[in-house]
Amino acid sequence: MNPVTEYPSGRKERQILLLQQMRALLEGETFAISHMANAASLLWHALPAVNWVGFYLRQGDDLLLGPFMGKPACLRIPFGKGVCGTAAAGKKVLRVADVHAFPGHIACDSASRSEIVIPLLESGETAAVLDIDSPVSNRFDEEDEEFLTEFARLVEKGCDLSAFR
Ligand code: SME
Description:
By secondary structure, the protein is of the alpha+beta class. The chain contains four helices and six strands; from the N terminus they run ααβββαβββα.
């Protein structure tokens, strides 16, 4: 599979293509690290105005850095801390329009202004999170949240997440 590197400029068209590509990439394997690496790469190359796309993986009460695109990031985030840890603990999507206004935000890349974090669940518990940062304030709206949630659900279903507990 060789995903196109030119994406449609229309948001909806781009989202449909990304979902198709992710579905195709997930076929025939369940190893989570490989799939997360491809998922991060797909989003990184397709989404405008993002400076970090990646996954954190659960290890007990912490999240550990997983496959990502962007600058090196902090390795370990305790559940309940930062945007990622808060989303992981609450098992809910967190969309933060202004990271500087989020108490306890962990700044891995000082360019980040807004962020969205989507938990991936295994047997009802957070096993990983998909984290996307943008250098633009209020970058992610409700439509982005819907799309990224659908994208994350695909990855969640296609991956064996049983190691991340
Ligand atoms: N900002 C995140 C930390 C991870 S980086 O953005 C890659 C947080 O507050 O949890």
